[in-house]
Hints:
The longest helix is centred in the middle third of the chain and has 28 residues, at about 75-105. The model is unreliable at about 110-125 (pLDDT under 50). It contains 9 helices and no strands. It folds into 2 domains: about 1-105, Orthogonal Bundle (Rna Polymerase Sigma Factor, Chain: A); about 125-189, Arc Repressor Mutant, subunit A. The radius of gyration is 18 Å and the shape is globular. By secondary structure, it is mostly helical. Helix 3 (about 55-65) packs across helix 4 (about 75-105) and helix 7 packs across helix 9.
Amino acid sequence: MSSDSTGHVTSLLQRLQQGDERASDELFPLLYRELRNIAERCMSAESETHTLQPTALVHEAYLKLVQVDDPGFRDRDHFLAVASKAMRHILVDHARSRKSAKRGAGRRPSPLDQAVVLFEERSLDLVALDESLIELAQLDPQLARMTELRFFGGLNTDETARILDVSKRTVERGWNTTRAWLRARLLSN
Length: 189
């Protein structure tokens, strides 16, 4: 995105904060492709039969973000970082509701239900990942935020460093540490 476009996005975000509802309509097409990329990365570990699609995830997250009374978005990068977090929460809530529905409130699962459960268990367990990130946030909030930006936001090292206001090397070290910690944590579950 060019610096002119980035400046326009920032001005639209400021108008949005001032209550200009038209700013939301102008902002969405400018950020749609980037939001869609974030959604696709968030859902890359999901099965192809997942009931929530990237387009729906983008729209749900966007509506959540622009309907907040005072969102306080500083700029494009900040908006996209918050959007990635919103998408994470939407996916985790969706996974939790699917898991509770699978339990079936006492009914016996049919063979088809069992096959679906086995297939879905092969994909990334977002609930376990979310619980691990909550635990990581208690140990090191910056590492948890970095992971959120990299994993769910799909931001690269430079973008993550800029948002967190740290060096690129700090992000690289933190990302390596976090991946090892998450791997060990998720494999122990």
